[in-house]
């Protein structure tokens, strides 16, 4: 690892029958092969930064008929002056879509020239006349994600070549597609016969992008010729009547006039219930309108009559099969997976009722699985050797009553309990999730990994309080205007219930930890006298401390305007109602504060304010500042340092 904050990804072969694997591309540190598509039966297209320029470009691999024993040499197809991303290939292998960050009304070469001029003029000044000034972890300096379309053709030598210049579908628009910061190729789709291309975009042209959640789906018409294609000069918005979010269009594999997409219905509410929509010949209908759960990524079956849906259900990400969505026969809904977290459904191109997916749980890192014969079977075993070298804490779901509802949480035993079979008195890591409209899922994660705390000898309790997702929309909505009440009461009651149900946990040696909204709750608990003395120490990662100043410093204003109650200057009492900074006088508990320097969701002054107050009051405290991290700690060495520092802080109070 010459650069321990980097990584390398390569392409692997996995035979579905023998389960034999082979690494196809040569590993080079810092090189990442990604976003793989079959262009035909023996060729895959992918993106990689292994070009001589160091930029991410389009490559191909020719796949042999038998598992290779040596690395294959990729062939570079494009050589553009900018990085490209978000690869999408039509099923005929003749059209390619990719994103590139360009200035509006500028092509790639013109964008490069503008960037060179900016670098050469010696000025380091950004000018803004609208929001966003910055978003998530980057300043918005003018370049935009635009979708480019390009035709390709396989030559007699077996190598693909471009047969057209890339066409910027959004050339004139000061807008992003995929949307930032988390949009990807699920926001685009080619129709089956290549007569249309659909894309999702945000309305970034004015400052309202900061307080509106209005995403819309547009289509452009395509006309194919022998070796090229044309794109219509105008795009058609098919969802502009809805002022909330419309996203992730996916054309039917059988009909160019039919697509599905996901949508919310409440403008300005990002965590509204996500519903499945069917667009057919200009008419939009809602599928499963009475379902209380939000629908995640959706994948068509090969016949265009049914879909596979990823759904968050009681803190598990499961897969449902929704059959006959066009109502040619009575529709039917079938649950295919029930435990852990399943993602990335990839349907077998020929055989029905078979698909590949990824799966993980609290005790198992992500691996590749296949669903066939009504059962899920693992295909990959990349983590098996590592798992044999470690002890993992067993886990179970528990529940309790709070605020007239059944509230659920996870309990993970410390791994020290495995050696002695009967758990002895163990200290407690009491984890509080962010979002707040998310959940602690039965899933593996590099951030806030339960096993890292269990491995350090801690029992783990993680509660999905009121406001969490996957328990029905009413439960999610209940946190609105109640940031410091219902969730706080659930955590209070949940701590009591956990200590009653798991008697081996030593409640006198408890540490509470949280990030984002969970960090807000840490700051709120610090000021509440009925709770702050229940913990020997607190850990706050990127948490809000002053809700009034938070409103003016954060980038996505729809969060506080919906969740807390409108514009701060029009409703200051709502922002003060559950404002942690008002209760600094009650703070007595030692706290570790962690902050990312590129976190523009919860800015660094929120954490600095907490540290200042603690130091001024003479309360034991420590602050960790990661200048290159955003709202999350993502770099490998920084992540290791995070765990080492956090667990060391906890041990200083619980293991004296």
TrEMBL record:
GO terms for molecular function: serine-type endopeptidase activity. InterPro entries: AB_hydrolase_fold (IPR029058), Peptidase_S9_cat (IPR001375). One of its GO terms (biological process) is proteolysis. It comes from the Eukaryota. Residues 444-653 form the Peptidase S9 prolyl oligopeptidase catalytic domain. Signal peptide: none annotated. Pfam families: Peptidase_S9. Gene3D superfamilies: alpha/beta hydrolase. The keyword Signal applies. Keywords: Hydrolase, Protease, Signal. Belongs to the peptidase S9C family. PANTHER family: DIPEPTIDYL-PEPTIDASE 5, SERINE PEPTIDASE S9 FAMILY MEMBER. This is Peptidase S9 prolyl oligopeptidase catalytic domain-containing protein. It comes from Didymodactylos carnosus.
């Amino acid at each position: 690892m010459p650069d321990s904050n980097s990584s390398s990804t390569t392409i692997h072969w996995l035979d579905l029958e023998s389960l034999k694997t082979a690494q196809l591309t040569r590993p080079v540190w810092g090189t990442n092969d990604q976003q793989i598509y079959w262009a035909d039966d023996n060729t895959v297209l992918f993106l990689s930064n292994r070009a001589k320029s160091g930029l991410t470009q389009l490559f191909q691999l020719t796949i042999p008929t038998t598992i290779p024993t040596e690395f294959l040499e990729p062939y570079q197809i494009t050589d553009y002056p900018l990085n490209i991303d978000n690869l999408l290939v039509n099923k005929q292998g003749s059209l390619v879509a990719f994103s590139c960050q360009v200035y509006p009304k500028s092509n790639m070469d013109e964008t490069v020239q503008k960037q060179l001029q900016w670098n050469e003029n010696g000025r380091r000044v950004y000018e803004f006349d609208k929001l966003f000034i910055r978003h998530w972890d980057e300043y918005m300096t003018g370049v935009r994600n635009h979708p480019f379309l390009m035709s390709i053709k396989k030559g007699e030598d077996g190598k693909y070549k471009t047969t057209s210049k890339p066409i910027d579908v959004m050339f004139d628009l000061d807008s992003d597609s995929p949307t930032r910061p988390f949009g990807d190729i699920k926001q685009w789709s080619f129709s089956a016969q290549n007569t249309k291309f659909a894309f999702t975009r945000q309305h970034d042209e004015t400052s309202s992008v900061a307080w509106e959640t209005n995403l819309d789906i547009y289509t452009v018409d395509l006309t194919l010729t022998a070796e090229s294609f044309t794109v219509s000069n105008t795009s058609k918005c098919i969802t502009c009547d809805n002022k909330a979010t419309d996203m992730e269009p996916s054309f039917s594999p059988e009909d160019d006039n039919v697509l599905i997409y996901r949508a919310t219905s409440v403008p300005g509410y990002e965590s509204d219930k996500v519903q499945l929509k069917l667009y057919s010949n200009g008419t939009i209908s809602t599928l499963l309108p009475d379902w209380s759960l939000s629908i995640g990524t959706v994948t068509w079956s090969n016949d265009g009559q049914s879909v596979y849906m990823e759904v968050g259900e009681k803190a598990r990400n499961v897969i449902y099969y929704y059959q006959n969505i066009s109502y040619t026969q009575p529709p039917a809904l079938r649950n295919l997976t029930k435990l852990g977290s399943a993602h990335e459904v990839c349907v077998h191109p020929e055989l029905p009722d078979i698909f590949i997916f990824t799966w993980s749980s609290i005790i198992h890192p992500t691996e590749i699985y296949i669903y066939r014969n009504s059962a899920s079977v693992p295909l990959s075993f990349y983590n098996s050797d590592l798992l044999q070298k470690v002890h993992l804490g067993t886990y179970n779901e528990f529940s309790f009553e709070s605020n007239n509802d059944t509230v659920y949480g996870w309990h993970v035993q410390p791994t020290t309990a495995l050696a002695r079979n009967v758990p002895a008195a163990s200290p407690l890591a009491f984890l509080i999730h962010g979002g707040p409209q998310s959940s602690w899922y039965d899933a593996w994660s590099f951030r806030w990994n339960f096993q890292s705390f269990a491995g350090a000898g801690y029992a783990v309790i993680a509660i999905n309080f009121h406001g969490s997702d996957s328990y029905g929309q009413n439960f999610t909505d209940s946190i609105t205007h109640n940031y410091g009440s219902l969730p706080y009461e659930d955590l209070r009651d949940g701590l009591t219930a956990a200590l009653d149900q798991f008697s081996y946990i030593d409640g006198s040696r408890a540490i509470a930890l949280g990030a984002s909204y969970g960090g807000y709750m840490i700051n709120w608990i610090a000021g509440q006298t009925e709770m702050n003395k229940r913990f020997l120490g607190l850990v706050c990662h990127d948490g809000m401390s002053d809700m009034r100043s938070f409103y003016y410093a954060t980038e996505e204003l729809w969060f506080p305007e919906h969740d807390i109650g409108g514009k701060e200057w029009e409703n200051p009492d709502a922002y003060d109602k559950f404002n942690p900074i008002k209760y600094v006088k009650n703070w007595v508990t030692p706290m570790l504060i962690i902050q990312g320097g590129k976190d523009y969701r919860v800015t660094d002054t929120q954490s600095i304010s907490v540290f200042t107050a603690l130091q001024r009051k003479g309360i034991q405290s420590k602050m960790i500042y990661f200048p290159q991290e955003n709202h999350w700690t993502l770099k490998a060495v920084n992540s290791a340092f995070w765990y080492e520092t956090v667990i060391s802080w906890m041990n200083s109070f619980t293991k004296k």
